[in-house]
Amino acid sequence: MHFFDYKGKNFYAEGVSVEKIIKEVGTPVYIYSQKTLKRHYKAYDASFAKVPHLICYSIKANSNISVLKAFAEEGSGFDIVSGGELYRALKAGADPKKIVFSGVGKREDEIEYALKSNILMFNVESPQELAAIDSIAGRLKKKAGIAIRVNPNVDPKTHPYISTGLKKNKFGIETAQAIKEYINAKNKLKNVAPIGIDCHIGSQITQLTPFVDALNKTKELLSELRAQGLDIKYLDMGGGLGITYDTEEPPHPSKYGEAVIEGTKGLGVTLIFEPGRSMVGNAGILATKVVYTKEGTEKNFVIVDAAMNDLARPSLYGSYHAIKAVKNSAKEEITADVVGPICESGDFLAKDRILPKLKAGEFLAVMSAGAYGFSMSSNYNTRPRAAEVMVKGKEYSVIRKRETMADLLKNEVLVADPKPAAKKKAAKKK
Ligand code: LLP
């Protein structure tokens, strides 16, 4: 459910016409609906209202500080995977006691920063990381809350790049080894407190079964750990609930809630969730201008000013994003590839798509672009990154300015010419 729709022929984000934003801010531009963001948070929160729970929005999906602020205002916690994300979360007003830190390669400086910020817990992904956290916490005279991310060997039935809970994936620790690590943490590591179990099996999951399978395996682990005397308070189920890009029918968070509440009855744990895509995916669009159209004997192309550097998902995963005309006035239709200006054949936003036949200078809206859109964007082909806009009712604000040419070079240094003295020495040596 989102708040992007046509009013007559014109496409709107809540109460603001997309064309108005485009005229004032330019293209390509990411446009987010704050009402949709808040609605999604509330849908999750309400789905678990009956039980102790914490929603930790997964920052990687969309890390704009104003997006984070919108969630922090609702009481959301955050799932971070880097020091940079921690910095953003704190700047956006996050409560550190509602932050969990995931990721297989946490660096020493990041662990230190998180400990000093007093986050809730680290989702530990390897025995070496556990030892590192214990040693850094000892040096800082802190006790680190930890959960071990277990790898339950459950197939989430999603794209292989975003499937994470199988033995062949780099994430987490297999259950048998995790038990040993928990016991080791309890008996030998003085500076960590094993308070949780974490399990994230993948992303864009459109069925409940993989979640339920993972939950059942996690429950077995919970009772084993409790039998060993560990005081586990948190069960972190990760993120992963899918959204509708095309014809998918993922379960509503309330259905997910029912299944998880039923499955965790009487366990006496606080549930943690780390949703990313389902919180922001359908709350954002990418608006782009048609630069040229080209009709060939085999293919038609609509060449737009957004590219794989702005939205990598179609090129990277072959993923589908619906595309709509910002002004729906064309009567004729065309089947075309929507492509960007980047010098790679993999630079496309859509393939063989039936679209209204637009002319150069008209605009398109790429739907469901709020998750893993801007946050995965780059400057490839020395393209300035897009602007980002937040709509609130009848108003909007630019929440990230479009990058300028100067921004593109601001961290680069022209290599200095050798000093005259050095030049002479070099000449003498010859
Ligand atoms: N927690 C952990 C530990 C994660 O690795 C992820 C996503 C999430 C939570 C949030 O998952 P979500 O609710 O968004 O499914 N770039 C890919 C998706 C990568 C997902 C990475 N991890 C895409 O565009 O489809």
Question: What does this protein structure show overall?
Answer:
The chain is of the alpha/beta class. It contains 13 helices and 21 strands. The model has no long low-confidence stretch (mean pLDDT 95). It is globular. The protein has two domains: 4-31 and 281-399, Lyase, Ornithine Decarboxylase, Chain A, domain 1 (Beta Barrel); 103-273, Alanine racemase (TIM Barrel, Alpha-Beta Barrel), CATH 3.20.20.10. Helix 2 runs parallel beside helix 9 (253-263). Strands 4, 14, 15, 16, 17, 18, 19, 20 and 21 form a nine-stranded mixed β-sheet that branches. Bound molecules: ligand LLP. Residues 58, 61, 79, 102, 162, 200, 203-204, 238-241, 274-278, 313, 317, 372, 376 line the site of ligand LLP.
Cα shape: globular
Number of domains: 2
Mean pLDDT, all residues = 95
Largest sheet: 9 strands, mixed
Task: Give the radius of gyration.
Answer: 24 Å
Strand content: 25-35%
- Secondary structure: number of strands: 21
Task: Look at the structure and give the CATH class of the largest domain.
Answer: Alpha Beta
Structural class: alpha/beta
